[in-house]
Design brief:
Length: 248
């Protein structure tokens, strides 16, 4: 789903209580649903913006004038931040093929999205760069992006695209291969507190590279290898895995 489609969906939500005008620092902005989302994005992304006027909201057939206080702005800010973050999360997990199983894995994906990816092997910072590209793709070029560290989920979705390109495969299928190699496919919804701790242990092993030298416990377990995979950057781990599984 592209960013524009995502904005259209979000604008449909907000047009149920469509603002007919917003006065920001004394300037009236009349808007369509699309520009309304743009204004609301500005509220989210511009923390120093103070709205000092009033907004007219249409609810059913009733018009109500509401004067925005700073608390109101902060409330809207939090609401919109959550809304866009949820939209981004949904966009990420829509790129995962869970195979033939009819189970859902939303709890697992949320655990993966909460956990920050940490790199310390040279050139693994490229995986972080690819994750940032996902944010740019979703939010659009020129818009300020969330500044929090990238998540494991983001890194794997981005890496699945790289694997698909190298192997001439499908990125959504590669994402599921990653999850199966990490043995995270054993954690369908709902995840209990005990199972969540197990998921965290697996993610900890992946991030800090405490898996086996042949890659077992990581993304790319190999049957034969002369190198300690815990010391190999993910890009070359991926190539070794593809060469072993899909020999040319």
């Amino acid at each position: 789903m592209c960013c524009r489609t995502q904005e259209t969906q979000l604008s449909m939500i907000w047009t149920e209580s469509l603002a007919l005008g917003i006065w920001a620092n004394g300037v009236t902005v009349h808007k369509t649903p699309t520009s309304f989302i743009f204004v609301m994005k500005s509220l989210v992304w511009t923390s120093k913006l103070f709205v000092t006027g009033e907004v007219t909201l249409k609810r059913s057939i009733q018009l109500s004038d509401i004067r925005l206080t700073l608390d109101d702005v902060l409330t809207v800010d939090l609401m919109m931040t959550k809304l866009f973050n949820e939209g981004y999360f949904d966009w990420l997990i829509a790129q995962i093929d869970t195979g033939r199983t009819h189970r859902t894995f939303e709890d697992l994906f949320r655990c993966m999205h909460r956990r920050e990816f940490v790199w310390f092997i040279p050139n693994d910072d490229n995986r972080v760069g690819d994750a940032w590209d996902l944010r740019r793709e979703f939010w659009g070029e020129g818009h300020p992006l969330p500044q929090n560290g990238v998540s494991i989920l983001e890194v794997l979705v981005a890496l699945s695209r790289r694997a698909a390109w190298v192997s001439s495969g499908e990125s959504h299928e590669w994402m599921w291969i990653f999850i199966k190699n990490l043995k995270l496919n054993k954690f369908p919804d709902p995840i209990s507190f005990r199972k969540e701790n197990q998921v965290e242990d697996i993610l900890e092993t992946f991030v800090w590279r405490t898996y086996a030298p042949n890659g077992e416990g990581g993304l790319f377990p190999l049957h034969e290898t002369k190198e300690d995979q815990t010391k190999v950057e993910l890009w070359y781990q991926m190539h070794a895995y593809i060469n072993e599984k899909i020999p040319i």
